[in-house]
Specification:
By secondary structure, the chain is mainly α. The protein has one domain (about 1-90): Cytochrome Bc1 Complex, Chain D, domain 2 (Orthogonal Bundle), CATH 1.10.760.10. It contains five helices and no strands. The relative contact order is 0.18. The structure holds heme C.
């Protein structure tokens, strides 16, 4: 019984996270990456179909990841909290 409640609350929690991630993505990322993550004209490549978005986003934030245009991404993620980045990254990893 306890186990069942635990599983349900974990599932409930992750779907809330996913909804938040989608909303945040739409507000903060879609402009450059497209609503489906497939826009490549600005970033040089699509982010849809990738994996490990969180590591990349944290890397942009702390300066350990990025290419020629990383300054653009650093500006984007600088003001986003780590927990919001986590929600966004979970959403980005679902884009195929
Ligand atoms: C102003 C335009 C712009 C916005 C807004 C933006 N990005 Fe980017 N993004 C870029 C550019 C340009 C790059 C390539 C940067 C580089 O050279 O490392 C990039 C790279 C990335 C990468 C790495 C791709 C890879 O595998 O190398 C990820 C993941 C990413 N963006 C996710 C996001 C997310 C999530 C958001 C919203 C929080 C976001 N971006 C907002 C322009 C943008």
């Amino acid at each position: 019984m306890v186990k069942k409640i635990l599983i349900l609350s974990v599932l409930g929690f992750s779907s809330v996270m996913a909804a938040d991630g989608a909303k945040l993505y739409g507000a903060k990322c879609a402009e450059c990456h497209g609503t489906d993550g497939k826009e490549a004209s600005i970033a040089g490549k699509a982010i849809a179909g990738g994996s490990g978005a969180l590591a990349k986003l944290i890397g942009y934030k702390n300066g350990t990841f990025g290419g020629d245009q990383k300054a653009l991404m650093q500006g984007n993620v600088a003001t986003i909290s780590d927990s919001d980045l986590q929600s966004i990254a979970s959403y980005v990893d679902t884009l195929k």
